[in-house]
């Protein structure tokens, strides 16, 4: 097959993919959010015997699209409120398609100068936008868990060095490490701590909205000596609350601890002049983690790991071998992530920031917060329902008078399909949690959401109990 025929195969397959992708996007505003077919249903269409001979690429794409169509969750819908998942801006989506077509292994600056440069600009813009130290190292990883993990590995090695230990010898050869967090620490931070060899964090208390108990943190740090890492939180996954960074960072630094901030969705409050009070003192920490595919609304996957001391980051995460190209005194992308091989995740971040600008990002963050506030106000007017959290940011936790009714409401909403909100347990009660993360969640989406919740409550007789 000649080069022209190969190129034509790519073109035809991409045209079919474009048609199906555009058709999918056209349906997001109004389609039921729930999948219509479960995993077994989709597998039944695809899971035959591996054929001896292949098929034409166009036929393969058509088969995939047809088999998957009604097994897809409309996560890009403006009424999808589960798992803190944002939508996707057009420029970011298109940039992500280019990233796939370019197929650059963005580990090193030398062989992939274009994507490395775009990521470096995106990193500079992010630090500026979020008010973080300009000299910080930035790594583009898969998501919040790996962003937390990357930062904790840098933290682990740095505090071991401060204690006179050699991180290359392993944590078992150094002094005991203390890992502390508030009671509302997110599960991704717990997992990241385990992966980094720190174990699950010792929790030091929290208030009723999930903010770390600063006095409890001070007591815990003062109860022992040795290297310590403190995990703080920008945006509680249930309440949206932010830790008191100014006080907690000061306490931790007085004790010589490294401070890491898990800001998977809440770090973006720093981009809004109206909301910057929520993150006062946050920039004084030592590392930060966030997800661009949450609040910034870029495609999966794109977590961001940020470490104030870039040399500490590259010392902990950097990989070196004779065959790997490098430039003396300049860190490579693979020095700031746990991966040698990866796609250019930072390119869609650049595209989103370039298309929005500073004011556009601020409007995005403010709009998400306004939508959450409007949802809470609307829910408060529904008989029998109660909003349990203070709603400072983008999370709303809704409950009926008893856990059984709340669970039933969550099930009813997900089956009805107009919205998708996750059920959870918070402060000893079952809740239905609405995480506002999509740039398309406007006044009409809020109206439809409040309406369907009211219909669900009425159908279940919640207001009559």
From TrEMBL:
Keyword Lyase attributed: yes
Protein name: L-2,4-diaminobutyrate decarboxylase
Source species, domain of life: Bacteria
Keyword annotations from UniProtKB, A to Z: Decarboxylase, Lyase, Pyridoxal phosphate
N6-(pyridoxal phosphate)lysine: modified positions: 294
Single Gene Ontology BP annotation: carboxylic acid metabolic process
Family of this protein: Belongs to the group II decarboxylase family.
Organism: Microbacterium trichothecenolyticum (Aureobacterium trichothecenolyticum)
Class of this enzyme: lyase
MF annotations from Gene Ontology: aromatic-L-amino-acid decarboxylase activity; diaminobutyrate decarboxylase activity; pyridoxal phosphate binding
Cofactor requirements of the protein: pyridoxal 5'-phosphate
EC number(s) recorded for this UniProt protein: 4.1.1.86
């Amino acid at each position: 097959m000649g080069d022209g025929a190969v190129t034509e195969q790519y073109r035809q397959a991409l045209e079919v993919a474009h048609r199906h992708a555009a058709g999918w996007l056209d349906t997001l505003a109004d389609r039921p959010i729930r999948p219509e077919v479960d995993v077994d249903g989709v597998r039944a269409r695809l899971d035959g015997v591996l054929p001896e001979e292949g098929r034409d690429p166009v036929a393969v794409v058509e088969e995939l699209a047809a088999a998957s169509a009604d097994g897809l969750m409309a996560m890009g819908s403006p009424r999808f409120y589960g798992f803190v998942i944002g939508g996707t801006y057009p420029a970011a989506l298109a940039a992500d398609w280019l990233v796939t077509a370019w197929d650059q292994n963005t580990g090193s600056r030398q062989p992939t100068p274009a994507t490395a440069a775009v990521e470096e600009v995106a990193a500079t813009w992010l630090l500026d936008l979020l008010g973080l130290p300009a000299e910080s190292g930035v790594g583009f990883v898969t998501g919040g868990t790996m962003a937390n993990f990357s930062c904790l590995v840098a933290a682990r090695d740095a505090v071991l060095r401060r204690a006179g230990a050699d991180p290359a010898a392993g944590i078992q050869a150094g002094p005991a490490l203390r890992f502390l967090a508030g009671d509302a620490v997110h599960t991704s931070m717990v997992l990241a701590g385990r992966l980094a060899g720190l174990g699950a964090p010792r929790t030091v208390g929290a208030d009723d909205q999930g903010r770390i108990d600063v006095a409890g943190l001070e007591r815990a740090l003062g109860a022992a000596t040795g290297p310590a890492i403190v995990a703080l939180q920008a945006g509680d996954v249930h309440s949206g609350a932010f830790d008191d960074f100014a006080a907690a960072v000061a306490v931790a630094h007085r004790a010589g601890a490294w401070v890491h901030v898990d800001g998977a969705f809440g770090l973006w409050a720093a981009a809004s002049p109206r909301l910057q009070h929520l993150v006062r003192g946050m920039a004084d920490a030592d590392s930060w983690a966030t997800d661009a595919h949450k609040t910034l609304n870029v495609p999966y996957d794109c977590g961001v790991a940020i470490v104030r001391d870039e040399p500490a980051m590259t010392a902990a995460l950097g990989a070196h071998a004779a065959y790997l190209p490098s430039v003396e005194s300049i860190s490579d992308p693979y020095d700031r992530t746990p991966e040698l091989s990866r796609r250019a995740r930072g390119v869609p971040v650049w595209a989103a920031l370039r298309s929005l600008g500073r004011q556009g990002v601020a409007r995005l963050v403010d709009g998400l917060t306004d939508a959450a506030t409007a949802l809470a106000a609307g829910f408060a007017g529904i008989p029998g329902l109660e909003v349990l959290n203070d709603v400072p940011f983008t999370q709303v936790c809704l409950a009926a008078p008893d856990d059984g009714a709340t669970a039933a409401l969550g099930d009813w909403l997900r089956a009805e399909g107009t919205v998708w909100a996750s059920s959870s347990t918070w402060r000893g009660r079952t809740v239905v949690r609405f995480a506002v993360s999509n740039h398309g969640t406007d006044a009409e989406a809020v109206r439809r959401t409040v309406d369907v919740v009211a219909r669900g409550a009425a159908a279940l007789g919640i207001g009559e109990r």
